Amino acid sequence: MSMMRRRVSRVVVGLTVLSALLLTGIYADFKPSITPPVDEPFAGRYRYYGLAVSPENSDQIWLVGSYGQVRISDDGGEHWRSGWTGTHQHLQDAVALGNGTVVAVGNGGDILRSEDSGQTWQAVPGVPSSDIENKLVRIRQAPDGALWAVGVMGAALVSRDEGRSFTQVVAREDMAWNDVGFSENGIWLVGEFGRLSYSPDGYTWRSVTAPVSESLMAVDFRGPYGVIAGLNGVVLTTEDSGEHWTRIPVDSATPALYAAAMDESGEAILGGALGQLFTLDHRTHPFLRTLDGRLAPADVVLDVDLRGRDLVALTASHPLKLSLPMRARASSDTPAGERQLRFDRQQMAARSPVIR
What we know:
One of its GO terms (molecular function) is hydrolase activity. Residues 178-255 form the Photosynthesis system II assembly factor Ycf48/Hcf136-like domain. The chain has one helix and 30 strands. It is mostly beta strands. The strands form eight sheets. The protein has a four-stranded antiparallel beta sheet, with no helix packed on it. A four-stranded antiparallel beta sheet has the order 5-6-7-8, with no helix packed on it.
């Protein structure tokens, strides 16, 4: 009986070794017949709330979003690769400084910084915080290179060392600053309840009375021209760097507006709810015009970046890169001199629902 057991054991061991050798040979000879794709598709669980575009190359784009996730494209959105900033907080916005430096802000008052184009990230130490709530929703770079970040509980932070440290510049209060913009003569904060604040130098501040009470969500300037967008379709413009603000009449169906970008000519692109992008040239036609090629009604435009004729828009379902050539178009039913914005739409490869 014991001899029989030894024979059975030898057979089992022999078969096991033989199977291992055969499997090793099979896997050693196996090679994939298709090259794995470079592009990494967006995972459905992640959502993206803010974007940054390289000041050196408008084809290099970063998206930041939920659970510290980041997506990076080097070819204008044709392909994406994923990354993680090291935080589990939701990130709301980012800014690219050039030379591979990117700074992101988000929930919990987190500020993270990368010096290798988003491959690795480090948390910025000593960020000023509130004892009640901390959430940073926007970060922008001023013409002098300073970084400005704004958020809830009156957060308005400045960095003058490329994002290595930040300082709170205004008194904390129970309201949110939603965006920051830079005119020829100073810095502008826009926020809840029609709040506006202006500083000529970033140190001394004064409140400015806005002609509306709705929350203001976005601001941008080019030269003396400026635009502010807000809830309930609010649009304010200035032609004197903010000395005077005028409310632009809009249709009652104009949705809430969350994003604004202005080019060097003073023409603005505005984005908001119901999948709508608008153009506004208040020098010639001081009213909104819906862009040709309207987006899906479920889309919400959360952020826009305009570089020359390249517009990158982050919507509620996907990022887009749009080419915006301005063309004069005259016809029998078009008023003389009226210009209509046309664009060639290129939908980026990334698709993911985006809801704040």
